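User: Show me an example of a complex going from sequences to structure tokens.

Assistant: Sure. Here are the input components:
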Amino acid sequence: MNLHALTLHEAGEKLRKHEFSSQELTDSVFHRISHTDDKIHAYIELCRDAALDQAKQADQRLRQDTDPTPLLGVPIAIKDNFLTRAIQTTCASKILGRFIPPYDATTIKNLRADGAVFIGKTNLDEFAMGSSAENSAFFPTCNPWNTERVPGGSSGGSAAAVAADQCLAALGTDTGGSIRQPAACCGIVGLKPTYGRVSRYGIIAFASSMDQVGPMTKNVEDCALLLEALAGHDPADSTSVNRPVPRYTDALTGNINGLRLGIPKEYFVSGMQPEIDIAVRDAIRLLETNGARIEEISLPYTEYAIAVYYIVATAEASSNLSRYDGMRYGHRAPAMDLIETYMRSREEGFGPEVKRRIMLGTYVLSAGYYEAYYLKAQRARTLIKRDFDDAFKRCDVIVTPTAPTTAFKIGEKTQDPLQMYLSDIYTISVNLAGLPALSLPCGFDTTGLPIGLQIIGKPFDEATILRVAHAYEQSTPWHKEKPNL
Amino acid sequence: MKLSREDVQRVTALARLRLTAAEETSLTAELDSILVYMEKLNELDTSQVEPFTHAVDLVNAFREDVVTNEPNAEALLANAPEKDETFFKVPKIIE
């Protein structure tokens, strides 16, 4: 049996039945990585020794604990923008130098306590700014389905690692689509929870009003399991919301009878790859056959979302990234005086896309432009949020494509930042409105690249999203397909 | 043109960055085309719309003012580019 190919749920169950040990499972994952990662480059850093140590401890707990957690002994990959105590954290940037965090992000601390095994830190676009993982300061990650293609981004390393069976599940973050778009590109399941559902403490900040942590998994059941472990209130994150965490796995009933699916007409327009249009419409028909009702809805302010997003996100980023000054940690360039030290350290430490966004964000916040850009964008953001509030009066979830194209070629969009930004057209409104949304596989294009279906829910209604996604998954074969590596 | 080279230089200084001449040229063009795209928002009449503040309705998250973390100077200084005993060593700030 190829242990690394198991799902999180399957592996957890078999571990608890002692069919194999966490050490055997962890070994199998590292073996898989050593045979495939020279082609994929999903990982920035592997923590083999620490992982085998965690696995050993998990095995002991598996023998002793009367009620072991679902994650006990299961190998997980972590996007390299989560602070991990004693494990180097780079955010795929040179500016952090050889930064070893003195503490764990709350989500990491919780997964550690649950007994998860940390395989390593996965590649991303520098500071999670990008849609292809090409903006990493170290190397691009390749899509396991076709290594000439991008894995999507920014959580491209996590998505590729899950698709290539280099871990059983992974953690990602999503500010404008960074979990869902790579999940779509790599044929896996990825969920961005409601803003406030999961703690952001210890996540390297990009755009604080939108950043959110979420699971990236091989199927919907795993997604529900991992979300259950991640969700919950954290006093250390003042934006985290104190409300009970449902048992998301209880929502996976297969029954979507009478559920209302909203189909926004603005999401089915020219510019989308025709195969995606067909696959998503087929998926909607299948859900209808399974008992769901279709409601045509309208989200009229959709076309303004990208402009709003790239004003708000860059403004917040320019402010968040001002902390990288080379004083207390990270890269410091030798220079004559303080200002020169700041400028040279930041010049050498940040890559081109990060500089571009810091510049844009600084510009839209600067005197004389604040009202025209930033305040205007925040007013338009209210309109986008209202679109969803209105739509959810008529439906329970909204179903759309996740991305307008399947995975594009490495290098295809790096010269045109605006084209790259347009890859996020179907995902960013969700972040602006703070809503939960999931992407799951709904087919393949003619070249064999995965297509993603997006399901958007009401605030804090991840359970209904998972229910619909699970019902769809149960009647389709897509999630069982594996890339040929 | 929405953006001049001088604008780019002004913003570079505000952002405490430094750019090569070539970067300055390409960024001027790239940022300009992005800002032109953002003009789209001027189609919207937002005079009666409140600016967005929070995604979820949260009031201030108060807690007791108690120390929850142990002092750990060694761990915090471990990543310092330069240090002197238990201090961060930084370039001279006051003339």
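The lines above are the inputs; the final block is the predicted structure for all two components together. The helical segments of chain B are 5-14, 21-38, 73-77.
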